[in-house]
Amino acid sequence: MAAFQPLVFSGVQPTGNLHLGNYLGAIRRWVALQDEYPCLFCVVDLHAITVFQEPEELERSIREVAAAFIASGIDPKKHILFNQSRVPEHAELAWIFNCVARLGWMERMTQFKEKAGKDRERASLGLFAYPSLMAADILAYRATLVPVGEDQKQHLELTRDIAAKFNHDYSDRIAGKGLGHPIAMGDETVQGYFPMTDPLIEGPATRVMSFKDGSKKMSKSDPSDLSRINLTDDAETIARKIRKAKTDPDALPSETAGLAGRPEADNLVGIFAALDNRSKADILGEYGGRPFSEFKPALADLAVAKLAPIATEMRRILDDPAEIDRTLRDGAERARAIAGRTLADVKSIVGLLNG
Asked: Is 246 a catalytic residue?
């Protein structure tokens, strides 16, 4: 059997409006990856319902995320674009992974602690266990690469832990069925069915912060719409939000070291650099020593040029929801052709009768 083939998987939850952070930290990078690898792009709607969602709003959001992908440059004909709930193999594989993962692994997940807060006894079981579903999302396709933000890196590490334990526990069975590849695990080599998926974390703005508070991540859940640029915002709204973005009274530094302790300045410079495909050092070489009153208009012009066309194209795509649904159904059929083979192999390895 050939070695694991390079393949990219990534997804976004359909909860609220997608924003600049989603675009710079994920979607724009996915567009570039299309030229390097076969890719699967997923609207992870099963993850969304770990907390209650209004059904009508969820339906709308699923289509809106798909439209954002396409408007940003994702090609659903060359690659696979689908929504998670149309591929039941994700949920079935997640159950098997629930039986591989350990309770202590889940309890260490930072995002569960943050989302459940002090009232964790009332949190849903889905919220607690959803990193196992995330592992299934990735490993159903035996994806080798996942573009993730820093906040998701821990979940990818859990995916690797689940893959490693599965490979170790079933190494002999995998070898006997001729389904795996040799994988080094410390001083030991096992026959592994799942790859040890690697993260892709790169770029000057992988973590975009709020326009209202540079110490907080830009979020769809922030009650202030001025805290973020939504991908549906028009040119006037984009420019207004950048003008109103919080800054400090000092001029921009000439070197990146001068951004330390200045979170709002660091955030805006990082956004400029990411949108213009340059480094923070390049931006400061041009704007260092200049006040924000000169920097913000330049950033606004750049953001409008890059983002306003996406909003226009999204509105056009969303005018035909039936076409979005057809695209997602087609992608799901193609995804199932891959995930179905994986699940059949896993059932055979585990000893579940199949077929």
From this structure: no
